[in-house]
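Appendix B. One record, verbatim.
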Amino acid sequence: MIKKTITLIALSSVITSTLFAVNINNNSDAINIAGKQRMYSQKLIKDYAMIGMGNTFGSPKEDIKKTISSFSDGLDSLKKYNKDKKIQLKIKETEDFWTPLKKSLSESPDKNKALKLRKDTDKLFNLSNEITEMLSSNKDKSIINISGKQRMLSQKMAALYMFKVWKIKEDTLFEASLNKTMSEFKSNHETLEKYDKNTDKINKNLKNVKRNFKFFEIMSKSKSKFIPSLIYKKSNDIMKKMNETTKLYVKINGGK
């Protein structure tokens, strides 16, 4: 009986913390959560590739389960918070697309299905990005959008790298996709560095991210030496710092 009570308390704690993690109080919070959805779309396919390669660094099997749950929770929170009819329709479209996709992502990785799944997660990103853009209405709120997008780009760069290491047969646009993603990340970072409301903590985080981004620049040029574990770690380091930074931008702009 005591064990059962402890289990119920622990379960209640997990549920409460999950709900708190996706709680939306205002539009700045909503932009942050919608932006996270973009990041999750790329994190999912990165983990899928790691599992497919048999690489256990960072526990991708557990991580993909958590990310699937987090995406679903975020979608529910956005649906409950939003009252705009156009955004409601976009959320419904995302929900309909997400339902069969999460089933595919929960299955054992299949190299033959990997390319289609990457295209599907890119579509999931596009849907989530449209919601984020619709919520971002002015300059200050757009800085939350840009900062949040860096979280996604860190995962997209890593996912593209993993697909290269996994030797997924793709068209000749692979290198162009990676270079374009890295270029966008670099440009966004420069925009964030110039933002006139940056605090000392934000500037410190941005410097840290800049250092970690150099590993992507080095590894993307390599034709023979591949270290997926390093890129996996650095992508998560950037994601965590940019998540923290995005929360700071939300606070600057009236959120919590």
